[in-house]
Every structure is written in C-alpha cells, then in structure tokens.
Amino acid sequence: MNELSASAPVDVVPGVSPSWAELPADRYIDREMSWLAFNQRVLELAEDPNLPVLERANFLAIFASNLDEFFMVRVAGLKRRIVTGLALPTNVGRAPHDVLADISVKAHELQARHAAAYQDLVGPALVEAGIHVVTWDSLDEADKTILYRHYSQHIYPILMPLAVDPAHPFPYISGLSLNLSIRVQNTKTGKEEFARLKVPQMMSRLIRVDAREDLDYVRYIALEDLIANHLDGLFPGMKVLDHHVFRVTRNEDVEIEEDETENLIQALEKELLRRRFGPPIRLEISEDMDETTRMLLLREFDITEQEVYVLPSPIDLRALFVLAKIDRPELHYPNHVPTTNVWLKPSNPNERADIFKAVSRREVLTHHPYESFTTSVQAFLEQAAADPHVLAIKQTLYRTSGDSPIVAALIKAAESGKQVLALVEIKARFDEEANISWARKLEKAGVHVVYGIVGLKTHCKLVHVIREEKGVLKHYSHMGTGNYNPKTSRIYEDLGLFTSSETVGKDLTKLFNVLSGYAIEKKYKRLLVAPLHLRNGLLARIETEAANARAGLPSGIKIKVNSIVDEVIIDALYRASSDGVPIDVWVRGICGIKAGQPGYSENIRIRSILGRYLEHSRIFAFHNSGDPDVLIGSADMMHRNLDRRVEALVKLTDPEHVEQVLDMFTLCFSDKTAGWTLEPDSTWTRTHLDASGHPLEDMQDRQMTLAMSRRRTGAR
Predict the structure, then answer these.
(1) Does 91 map to a domain?
(2) Which of 506, 536, 501, 517 has its CA nearest to residue 452?
C-alpha cells in the first residue's frame, strides 16, 4: 500500500501529547451547533438593512443552500450512526440522539427566523426597490392572460401529475425537489384521491409576470404558484379540492468502500446511483397544509414530527438566487474589478505578460479575487500549454468545470505532445458526476489522468511545470489555497504562490510521484504534507512558541482557516495559551475551540469575517523568535484534512509576502473592522457599527483597495 495511506498512524510530537486530566471535558464547542452558528452569521447579513437589498436576498438564498447541504451530509451522518449503532467520537461525550435533538431545536429556530427575514425584512425592502414577488390572486386579468399563455406554451407540456391509489403506489420523491400535494374529487362518484405533481427543476423558480416591464419596476411569480392555479387542466373530469407545497431532503452523502482491486470510478458511479434513493431526513411543508395530507407524507416518508418544518410560502428560498442576478447596480455591492498582480503586469501594456520571466525573477504571491485569476493562474497554464520549451505539466484538480480554460489548457498541452498529468479528485462532494465527465474528456485527449491514493482524497492545490531553458530543466510551480476554478475564483478569497524555486520544484516532483505512483517519500524541505507530517509540523511549531513563552521570550500564533475542530491541534493551542502565547484564530465556519476561558484559553482571540466574498485561504503564522514562520495551503484543522486527505502547506520566504499576510491579521482583529467575535460563552457577537452608528471598515473592501495600490518594490 502507498505510504500516504489513510490508515497511517498519527504521531504526536513528544512533549505536547494530550494530558486529558489537565483540561476540562467540555473544552470543545459542538461541531454541528458551531456550523449552525456560522449559518446564523450568514442570516445576520441578510437581516442587515445597511447592505444592498439584492445582496441581502442573495444571503437568504445562500443560507437556504447551506442548510440543505448540512442536512444532506451532517444530519444524515448522525442518523447513519444511529441506524448502524455507531457512537459519536469519545470527545463529543453525547449520544447521537441527543445531538440530533439539539440540532432540531436550533434548525427549527433558524428556519423560522430565515422565513421571517424574507417576509418582514427583505421582501418589503425589495418592494421599496421596485422588485415584487406577487401571488396569482393579486394579478389583474391582463396579467393572468400573459401568464396563462406562458404556462400553456412552456410549462404545461412538461408537467407529470402522478396519482396515488391502489394501482399507483406513492411515487418516489427526489431530494430537494419542490412538489405539490393535490387532493381531487371524482365528480361522478364523489370519491377523493391524492396526487403528486413535481415542480420542474430545470425551470426558473421565479417567472417574470410581464417581460416588458422595466427592471426599475419588475414583478415575479413563483413557478409553483403559477402551476397551482392551473391544476384543473391537469385533472379533467375531477374537481381540485386543495393543494399544498412540500419538499423533502434526503441523505445524499456518498460513502465509498474503496478496494485496492476495484475500479474507483465504477464504485463511485454505483454509489451516486444509490445517493438518489437515500432515506428522507427533513420534510418542509407549507403552513396551510391540512392534517390528512401531513399525516400521509409523514407515513410515506417514515419520518418523525421532529423532522417536519412548517414554513410560510414560498418554500425553498434558494429561489432568491434569481433576484440576486437582477441588473440593478445600485442594489448590489459596488463593483470590484480584479487587478493584475503588480509583478505579473507586462512592461508594455500592449503585450501579454511572460509569466515564466516574471516568476524567474522573484516569487509572486497572488490574492484572489482582488487580483485576477485570469491574468495569473489561467495565464500561467495557457502559456505553459503553448510554450514549446515546456516539457511537462502536472496538476491536481479538485473542483473545476468541463468548459474551464484550465481543462482546455491541459488538453492543448497534451495534444501538442507535452507530458501532462492531471490528478483528478473525483470524490469531491457533490461534484462527483461532473468530475468523472471531464476526467474522461482529459483521458481522451491524451492526458495522464490518475485518481490519487486509495483511502485518501487529494485536496492539495498544485501545479508543477518543467521547462527546458538553455539545456537545463527548470521548475515553475504554483501552490494555492483554492481550487483551479475560474468561476469560483471570482467569489472565493484565496492565496496562491508562484515560484521557480528549485527546492519547491523538487518537493513537488517527489509529491507528484507519490500521488501517481508507488513512491514513498516523507521528507520535504518547504512543504508540510498530510497525512504523514502536516499535523506534527504544526504541533512542533506550536510547542516552539509555547517554550519561548515559558522562557519569557516573545511568541505568537496566528491561524486562518475555514474550520477548526481537530482536538489534538486545539489542545496544543490551549496549552500554548496557558503558557502565555497570544493566539489569534480567524475562522469562517466551524469553530470547535473556545476563547477567553479561565485557565486554558485566556490568550485566545477568535474572529470571523463574512461578506461579499467567501473567505477561503488557510494561513499558519508563528512568531518564531522574530523570524516569522508563515505557511499557506489547502488544509483546514479537521480530522479529514489531517488524517484522510493529501494536503500541502508551503512556507513563504519573501519578507514582503510575510508582511502582507500578517497585515491581513492586523486588519481582521482591528476594532475598526466589521466582523464577529467569539465570546467566552461561545456565542458570536457581530460588530459592524461604531459608537456613532456609522459602519465599520469592510475588510474585503479594504483588501481590494490594497491590491489596487500595490507597487513594485526591491530589485526586479
């Protein structure tokens, strides 16, 4: 088996191994409740009247989408543990039933608050801006005529009502589909029947009432409302008595039992087929649903009252993504135009930049989306594909798209005779089918496609280009914190390092050999690689800071991650805090670490920044006796990242890059910057206004300003 095996033991650095007796048993914040607190922060943005109204609508839609995935994955996982009899990890100290009960209480609270945010806050604000989501009953005859014509031509032909009776068993209801439950009566016999109608998922949930309306005054109607008011035509000879909207969420997590001898793609395709028929875990119903229909659905889906969410219409506020795309600039965030990184700009504006020439002079740190992905990462790969001196390109791909210019560049390189290796992680959750599709497209073009190591996901973000220059092979590399996806690069905040360092090039040569073959490699010079030694590398650095603090020397730790729940890392930070190390943790999502707790976390501050961009970069910075040790990469502080994934961090060596990254923490933790602070009682407090009621500085706006103002310094 490859040395980077999921079963590889996790070592603990001597001197920092856990001593459970020293720390209280309740020192961790519950993972699921922390995630719900994160989504509550998203909801708070939607509730903020100081934000542009279409951005608030977008945050409502993001909240809904996030919660769907939470149920499909996290709640589904807990229910699986109950069915299989598995307990939660010992550090949680609670039974799955108790965790699910707590989740249910909080989720019901948040879904009710989410619905109220739309009904009472965002909806009225949209109306003030001239954007109306109307009901059929509010329309006049002229509007109804227009909509009936649209319904007849574009909707009615594709509807498929399904009867439920002894000859027609209750139909399969796909996860996240919107449905109408319909009670009809036979006009001859008087017998009542039940039918189900699926709202077409390929159509927009919100339909323009009259496309001739100017966007300054525009009306939409929910697709299900339009359909519901034309049911008579679907049931000729029957009387429609009643109808209600419902939606079911299913277990859609994928579990692959990998076998050394089984084809991974075939195993995944079989599991994806099973995903469609996962058991129901949540039922959302309209608040006007009658008890007979409600009990029928509970019985057919075999779920409990605890799993039922009664909501006002419209159900599934992901529909608001439609409104968020309305072209009303004054109702959106001010436009941010990414700039080209100052070191990648051509000396002549009329020429294309030479990425190889720029990177051969110095390492380049890019910060997306403030700096352009197109003129950096994409340009790098396109230039490598076209350059006759490039002999080989190796790249990891976790999430991208089949029409991506990144995929196109790899295909072009392979077709021109270059050696091209693409390590495709087809197990990236909810992107599995797309990844299989474009992986096969790459294979047909002659790209060497591999799927990583049995038992591990390959999550690191790497590009390695080998170029011949004057008879010598030279390495050009990119290591990032985000996926090679041009679409998400416009909304995800990420860092990326371009380097021609021979040290990094040799490290990546070794790592790619591990990923694509049977090489065994444990030693890297500028990289920390999981699962073998990333955890231990960070623990050693934490212990160094703790030792310095105990010796009365300056110390400090700064960490930026999406999530932090790994107990060994958290306990090491607690002990460092107890020794006097000041620790700043900047976390977007799940946070299992507590702040301000007497005896073990007095010196820990925790902040969260949410806004127009999704904070996605991972940074680990250590004071290191005045010589800052700063690493960036792909790894969050979670069990899966440290134990079951191939992750990589790279050390920054340019003092300007180190300063730039540390300045990000200074800005994040400034009392003049808007954000959330984790309180000692483990609640999050949002601070976005100063004492006089004026908005505090938006960090992401500030980062855009900084990117635009950067100047070349030092030798070129």
Answers:
(1) no
(2) 517
Q: Hey, how many other C-beta atoms are within 10 angstroms of the C-beta on 115?
A: 20
Looking at the fold, whether 535 and 507 belong to one and the same domain comes out as: no
What tens digit of pLDDT does each residue of 2-32 get?
445 443 333 444 344 344 348 999 999 999 9
Helix, coil or strand: residue 97? helix
Q: 526-552: b or e for each residue (b if 16 or more CB lie within 10 Å)? A: bbbbbbbbbbbbbbbbbbbbbbbbeee
Do residue 599 and residue 488 come from a single domain? no
Point out the residues that are catalytic: 459
* Same domain for 234 and 166: yes
pTM, two decimal places: 0.91
Long-range contacts of 105-111 (CB under 8 A, 24+ apart): 106/33, 106/36, 107/36, 107/67, 107/71, 107/309, 108/309, 110/36, 110/39, 110/40, 110/43, 110/67, 111/67, 111/284, 111/309, 111/311
Q: Can you say which residues are annotated as belonging to the binding site?
A: 66, 399, 429, 492, 588, 616
Cα dist from 391 to 419, 466, 471, whole Å: 6, 6, 12
- In 10 A of CB 62, how many CB atoms? 22
Taking 70 as the pLDDT cut, the residues of the chain under it are 1-21, 84-93, 166-168, 253-277, 400-402, 427-435, 518-522, 714-716
Closest CA to 384 of 348, 431, 420: 420
Which of 587, 130, 558, 64 shows the shortest CA–CA distance to 331?
A: 130
Name the phi and psi angles at 300, rounded to 5.
Answer: -70, -35
Q: What residues make up the domain containing 176?
A: 111-331
Single residue among 525, 550, 565 that ends a domain in this structure: 525
Q: 3-state class of 175 per DSSP? A: coil
Cβ count within 10 A of residue 320:
28
Cα–Cα distance for residue pair 135/121, rounded to 1 Å: 18
> Does residue 195 lie in a domain region?
yes
Residue 499 sits in the same domain as residue 566: no
Supply the pLDDT for residue 5.
44
Q: pLDDT for 53-96, tens place per residue?
A: 999 999 999 999 999 999 998 998 888 777 766 665 544 557 77
488 and 535: one domain?
A: no
DSSP state of 302: T
Q: Which two tokens stand for residue 566?
A: 């790994």
- Evaluate whether residue 316 is within a structural domain: yes
pLDDT attached to residue 453: 78
* 286 and 316 fall within a common domain: yes
Binding-site residues for Mg(2+) sit at 399, 429
Residues 512 and 625 in one domain: no
Domain end (from 509, 525, 541): 525
Contact (Cβ atoms closer than 8 angstroms) between residue 544 and residue 662 = no
Residues 363 and 269 in one domain: no
3-state secondary structure 551-608: CCCCCCEEEEECCECCHHHHHHHHHHHHCCCCEEEEECCCECECCCCCCCCCCEEEEE
Binding-site positions for ATP read 66, 492, 588, 616
Measuring CA to CA, which residue among 173, 188, 226 is closest to residue 204?
A: 226
CA–CA dist 641, 604 (Å, integer): 23
User: Any bridge partners for residue 182, and if so which?
Assistant: 195, 243
Distance of alpha carbon 633 from alpha carbon 625, whole angstroms: 23
Q: Report if residue 6 sits inside a domain.
A: no
- Parallel, antiparallel, or unpaired: how do β-strands 238-250 and 218-222 relate? unpaired
